[in-house]
Amino acid sequence: MMVAVFGFFTISCSDDDNDGETLAPLTGKWKINQVGTTVAGVETLISAPQNQAGCEKDFMQLKSDNTVEEGNYDSTIDPCALFTDLGIYSRSNNNLTKVIDGVTTTQDIVNHTLSELKLKDANGNIEVYIK
């Protein structure tokens, strides 16, 4: 009887701090696919212009130790040269905050599945990443 009562309280008592969050892992290498804006409630997305033709897509790699690596492929000097910036990130409910080179950015996690991560900042700028 005691085990049943303890089991009931264990199951019924939960931490509600993560309401609305998805179970899909945030960690991994996310490649930028689309960018856009929201103007007067209308969302407009285009293919990410920062991706160099013939190169891998620019990326954001979120690691399990809360470090982030942002990769940018640029063919200005050498074909598909990779430039990276390192920093840290944290997640609080449905916000992703990154600190890279002393600059802090916070974005809302609009959509997060196993294969897509959609972020939007306070100005309505949107980034859509894919795995």
List keywords for this structure.
single chain; 131 residues; mainly beta; Lipocalin; 1 helix; 8% helix; globular; disordered N terminus
Please, could you describe this protein's structure?
Strand 7 (103-112) and strand 8 (116-120) form a beta hairpin. The chain has one helix at 2-12; strands at 28-39, 42-47, 59-62, 67-74, 81-92, 95-100, 103-112, 116-120, 125-130. 8% of the residues lie in helices and 53% in strands. It has one domain: Beta Barrel (Lipocalin), CATH 2.40.128.280. It is mostly beta strands. It starts with a helix and ends with a strand. It contains one helix and nine strands; from the N terminus they run H-E-E-E-E-E-E-E-E-E. This is Lipocalin-like domain-containing protein.
Low-confidence stretches: 1-22
Oligomer: single chain
Instruction: Please describe the biggest sheet, giving its number of strands, its sense, and whether it closes into a barrel.
Output: 8 strands, antiparallel, barrel
Task: Provide the structure class.
Answer: mainly beta
Number of helices: 1
Strand content: over 45%
> What share of the residues lie within helices?
under 10%
Mean pLDDT: 86
The CATH C-level class name? Mainly Beta
The tally of beta strands, per DSSP, is 9
Q: State the CATH architecture.
A: Beta Barrel
Fold-level CATH name: Lipocalin
Distance between the termini: 48 Å
> What is the topology, as strand order, of the major beta sheet?
1-3-4-5-6-7-8-9
Total tally of structural domains: 1
Helix-strand topology string: HEEEEEEEEE
Globally, the shape reads globular
Protein name: Lipocalin-like domain-containing protein
Organism: Flavobacterium cheonanense
